[in-house]
Structure formats: structure tokens, C-alpha cells
Amino acid sequence: MDHALAVYERAFRIDDHHAMLSLMTEDVVFSDPLSGEIRSKEALRKHLAQASGVMKDVAQVIEVKVIQGSEVFLKWVHTGTNAVTRKEYSFAGCTFCRFRGEQVAEHHDYFDPRALIAQFKDAYRTNRAAGKSKL
Questions:
Q1: Which residues, at least 6 apart from 93, have a Cβ–Cβ distance to it below 8 Å?
Q2: Which is nearest to 103 in space by CA: 16, 15, 18, 20?
Q3: Which residues contact 65 (CB under 8 A, 6 or more apart)?
Q4: What pLDDT, on a 0 to 100 scale, did the predictor assign at position 103?
Q5: How far is residue 40's CA from residue 56's CA, in Å, rounded to a whole number?
Q6: End-to-end CA distance of the chain
């Protein structure tokens, strides 16, 4: 698990969804305050695609990491730029992951969803004002 965790952590730090998904089981269980519970890699891929075109320059600084057996807890600060408004944003959160062998079987994020909802609303308003109907 040590190597898989190191690779996953590198992808997590830059919010590289493709790399993170490649390290997840097909039946991964994912949750965050926006999605509720998702129970497959394919469904998670679709959920994560929604952020495309809205968030860029994402970095997640891990402040605390605790490992107990196959379980990992991360406390982090997420920063990025709204690709539409060009404004920077940030919020804090934490993640619980459970590994099954060399793959992530569970990934649960906990954060205040208002921070991300505001980014999507601002992008929508900016696009609408510019005459663009989609994000």
C-alpha cells in the first residue's frame, strides 16, 4: 500500500482525477458533500467531469496525514482559480481513504460545500452575462 498511497497522494495534491481514478477499484465507494454516495468508478468519473472548465490551477496542501493499517486520513487546504471568473478561491477539508491492496476502495471527502457551489454559480453568472449558455 505504501507505493500506491504515495502515487495517490501526488495525484491528490494537484487534483489529477485521471490518475486518482486509475488507482481506484471498479467498485470504489466515493462521497463528498455535493455528490452523496457514489458506488462505481464509472459513476465517479462522470461526477468529477462536472468540474472541467470551472476549476483550474488546483492544489491541495496536506497539513496532516494519519495512516492506520489500510486506512488513511488527510487534513488539507484546497486552493485554485475559477477558470471563468479568474478569481482565486480556497477552502479546508479532510479525506478518509481505505485501501484494498494497492487500490483505493473508499474515498470520502468532508468540506463545506458552499465554497464549491459559489464557484459554479459565479461561473454560470459570468458566462450568462457574456452570452454563453453553458459552463
A1: 75, 76, 77, 78, 109, 110, 111, 112
A2: 20
A3: 9, 72, 73, 74, 75
A4: 98
A5: 25
A6: 38
Distance from C-alpha of 99 to C-alpha of 93, rounded to nearest angstrom: 20
What is the mean predicted confidence (pLDDT) over 60-74? 98
Based on the number of CB atoms within 10 Å of its own CB, is 41 exposed (0-12), middle (13-18) or buried (19 or more)? middle
* Strand intervals (E) in 5-54: 24-32, 36-38
Q: Which three cell numbers stand for residue 111?
A: 468540506
How far apart (Å, rounded) are the C-alpha atoms in residues 59 and 13? 6
Residue 60 pLDDT level (bands cut at 50, 70, 90)? very high
Would you say 55 and 122 are in contact if contact means Cβ atoms under 8 Å apart? no
Q: Quick one: pLDDT at residue 99?
A: 98
Could you report the per-residue pLDDT of 77-124, keeping only the tens digit for each?
Answer: 999 999 999 999 999 999 999 999 999 999 999 999 999 999 999 999
Q: Distances from the Cα of 10 to the Cαs of 7, 20, 59, 73, 132, in angstroms? A: 5, 9, 10, 15, 35
In whole angstroms, give the CA distance from residue 98 to residue 125: 38
